[in-house]
Design brief:
By secondary structure, the protein is an alpha/beta fold. The chain has 9 helices and 10 strands. It has a single domain, classed as Vaccinia Virus protein VP39 (Rossmann fold, 3-Layer(aba) Sandwich), CATH 3.40.50.150.
Length: 283
């Protein structure tokens, strides 16, 4: 079931009936099969290990810093020393490399359709004995035995795999050890009208390729494939429409992020309309 979140995190239970209700740390109802998702805006906290991995963010705007710190914090939630972890759709594998630096005794595998290579990759592999990169498809993890992986994750990956999330879920569930987790960091939510509008324009211009907005119903179906729990960390209610302005002015950025935090914690129905999220599935 996982440990309970702190009282500062408002958690909305969304039911398949469409009804949502707020719960806090006290009087927590037992989970029943119709309780699909746990939505919340995570409490901001210092996490030196997660912050050390921020170079993997690359060109993402500073207003998304809290999202990435929360997501990387999920990767570091437990000590991964001696464990086997897998990044899917890892690209050049920078995040996998940073996680291998954080947990030198872990076995960290970066998987992408094309195996990461080049001088920077070679230097990283030489320096980190627990790190490896392989070519492969996230929908076909047959190279990995059943129950052989403790953690699977992807960054900005799920919206490229949205055409068959159930197949993906079943394959990940097969390779996960009992209690293992699947974490997706920095994903777009189509319930936000601006995200949906921008995606529609980009689709009309044939600019999106295999990208797709994500919806809570997809997370619900993924959970129903066999995960015991699905948490959705929601961000950027006001932060997304004001991103272009706030990222050029630190004062505005700080003010918008504070207002977003207040709104998403005190008005839980707004969680549905955040623009971005991290998603955590527990086996």
């Amino acid at each position: 079931m996982g440990r309970a979140r702190s009282a500062g995190n408002a958690i909305m239970q969304c039911h398949s009936s469409g009804v949502a209700r707020l719960r806090g740390e006290t009087n927590v109802p037992r989970k029943t099969p119709d309780m699909a998702l746990e939505l919340y805006h995570p409490k901001r906290k210092a996490d030196t290990r997660a912050e050390a991995m921020l170079p993997a963010v690359g060109g993402f705007p500073p207003s998304d810093r809290q999202l990435f710190v929360a997501g990387y914090g999920e990767l570091c939630r437990i000590d991964l020393s001696g464990r086997r972890v897998l990044e899917i759709c890892g690209g050049f594998g920078k995040l996998a490399g940073l996680l291998a630096e954080t947990f030198p005794a872990a076995e960290v595998i970066g998987l992408d359709l094309y195996q990461a290579s080049g001088p920077e990759i070679d230097a990283r592999l030489k320096r980190l004995s627990g790190l490896s990169y392989v070519a492969g498809d996230a929908f076909d993890l047959s190279r990995f035995a059943d129950g052989s992986i403790d953690l699977v994750w992807g960054q900005a990956a799920l919206h490229h795999l949205a055409h068959d999330t159930e197949k993906l879920s079943r394959e990940v569930l097969r390779v996960l050890r009992p209690g293992g987790r699947l974490v997706f960091i920095f994903e777009p939510l189509g319930h936000n009208w601006l995200v949906a509008a921008i995606r529609a324009v980009r689709m009309a211009r044939h600019e999106v390729g295999d990208e797709s907005n994500l919806y809570f119903s997809q997370f619900e179906r993924m959970r129903d494939c066999g995960f015991s729990r699905c948490e959705v960390q929601v961000f950027n209610f006001l932060g997304y429409p004001l991103k272009a302005l706030s990222d050029h002015c630190r004062f505005i950025s700080t003010a918008v992020q504070r207002l977003d935090r207040w709104l998403l914690r005190h008005c839980p129905r707004l969680l549905r309309y955040g623009a971005n999220c991290n998603v955590i599935f527990t086996q």
